[in-house]
Design brief:
- There is one protein chain.
- The protein is mostly helical.
- It folds into two domains: 82 residues, Up-down Bundle (Four Helix Bundle (Hemerythrin (Met), subunit A)), CATH 1.20.120.910; 50 residues, no CATH class.
- Helices cover 58% and strands 0% of the residues.
- It has four helices and no strands.
- Helix 1 packs antiparallel against helix 2.
- The longest helix has 37 residues.
- The termini are far apart.
Length: 154
């Protein structure tokens, strides 16, 4: 029952954050429109406005990504699979969900994703092992610098 209560609390936190982000994104998008509409002034004004526009644009991108993750988490809650890791299908610890309510992976699967570019990615398409010329029997091939021919005459 404690997990259910925690999930209800997390649902409320997610919806509150979603509403905050929607309101903030609406204001930031209007601010970006105003930057583009007010193209008056000298080159220093334009440079200052441009840097402000870049910062606002980056904030919009970050917050949009967070909003997408939150909406995805709310959909998972409705489907009944919120709090279940997408990588290993185990329950995500409540401490992780408290820290990052829109997380869809446990810490181990997230680490694996960050290291290999995918969950279960060891030796997968993103692995450097397949690029090597070394035999695939797990042997490491040693390379001696003296074996390499270098032509410095050019």
């Amino acid at each position: 029952m404690a997990r259910r209560d925690a999930l209800l609390r997390l649902h409320k936190a997610l919806t509150t954050r979603r509403d905050e982000l929607r309101a903030r994104l609406g204001g930031e998008l209007n601010e970006l429109r105003n930057y583009r509409a007010g193209d008056t002034g000298d080159s220093a004004d334009l440079a200052f406005d441009s840097s402000g526009e870049d910062v606002t644009s980056q904030l919009v991108e970050i917050e949009s990504r967070e909003l997408l993750q939150i909406e995805r988490s709310l959909n998972r809650l409705k489907q009944g699979n919120y709090g279940i890791c997408e990588g290993c299908a185990k329950k995500i610890p409540l401490a992780r969900l408290d820290a990052l309510p829109f997380s869809s992976t446990c810490i181990a699967c997230q680490r694996e994703y960050e290291l290999y570019g995918e969950i279960g990615g060891r030796g997968g398409p993103g692995s450097w092992d397949k690029i090597s010329d070394a035999p695939s029997m797990g042997e490491d091939r040693e390379v001696n610098l003296s074996d390499l021919e270098m032509d410095f005459s050019k």
